[in-house]
Specification:
The chain has six helices and ten strands. 29% of the residues lie in helices and 19% in strands. The longest helix is centred in the N-terminal third of the chain and has 14 residues. It has 184 residues and is an alpha+beta fold. The protein has two domains: 73 residues, RNA 2'-phosphotransferase, Tpt1/KptA family, N-terminal domain (Arc Repressor Mutant, subunit A, Orthogonal Bundle); 88 residues, ADP-ribosylation fold (Alpha-Beta Barrel), CATH 3.20.170.30. It binds ligand HQG.
Length: 184
């Protein structure tokens, strides 16, 4: 892994899960002070304003955003700490996808998708992305979710600034395991 990638992983840990590791706090909307972040991260990884700008601009999943004058930074999604990143509520397409590990299927088929340590269940707009997400958990398996129907029945969906679909839970009734993978 490149140095910048390691630094980015560490920043993601700080901005989503454990700001206390470098002695900083996030505000209620998930924002961290850029100078404090740089100072804190620099104890472990080389980081300057220029490098941080580069990390944010080049991140392949666009995980981070600055505020307008670049004095604050936050993660766009993926948090385990309860912050309100002002997600946009959006009506989802007919189907969304969730990539997971084969090993979780039994439990998911029983109780549906739950957010576990994060604030939301993460869903993908397309199959290749879902497969990539699932591969992080061993042999991947992709569920198809009848998202539009869920939303019509009152379950809110949100779209993060970096294009990840989020919802609080997915009951078993809206999960499909046996869909036609060739037609999607
Ligand atoms: C599973 C990455 C058993 C769920 C990705 C998942 C994503 C259950 C795992 C983002 C379950 C949680 C999030 C149930 C859900 N029983 N297992 N009832 N319900 N699960 O990492 O969705 O690179 O917290 O299927 O690209 O894998 O970090 O969530 O397998 O967008 O930016 O519990 O993280 O993005 O795992 O990934 P995670 P995820 P970043």
């Amino acid at each position: 892994m490149s140095d910048l990638k390691n630094t980015s992983k560490f920043i993601s840990l700080i901005l989503r899960h454990k700001p206390e590791v470098i002695g900083i706090t996030l505000d209620e909307h998930g924002w961290a002070d850029v100078q404090q972040l740089i100072k804190g991260v620099s104890r472990n990884y080389q980081l300057t304003e220029e490098l941080l700008e580069q990390i944010v601009a080049e991140d392949e999943k666009q995980r981070y955003s600055f505020n307008e004058d670049h004095t604050l930074i936050r993660a766009n999604q993926g948090h385990s700490i309860p912050v309100d990143v002002e997600l946009e509520q959006v009506i989802p397409p007919q189907y969304l996808y969730h990539g997971t590990g084969e090993k979780f299927r039994e439990s998911i088929d029983r109780i549906g998708l739950i957010p576990k340590s994060r604030l939301y269940v993460h869903l993908s707009a397309d199959l290749p992305t879902a497969l990539k997400v699932g591969s992080r958990h061993g042999k991947p398996f992709v569920y198809r979710i009848r998202a539009r129907e869920m939303s019509e029945k009152g379950y809110p969906f949100f779209l993060s600034a970096n294009g990840v679909w989020l919802t609080k839970q997915v009951p078993v009734a809206f999960l499909e395991s046996d869909w036609d993978r060739k037609s999607d």
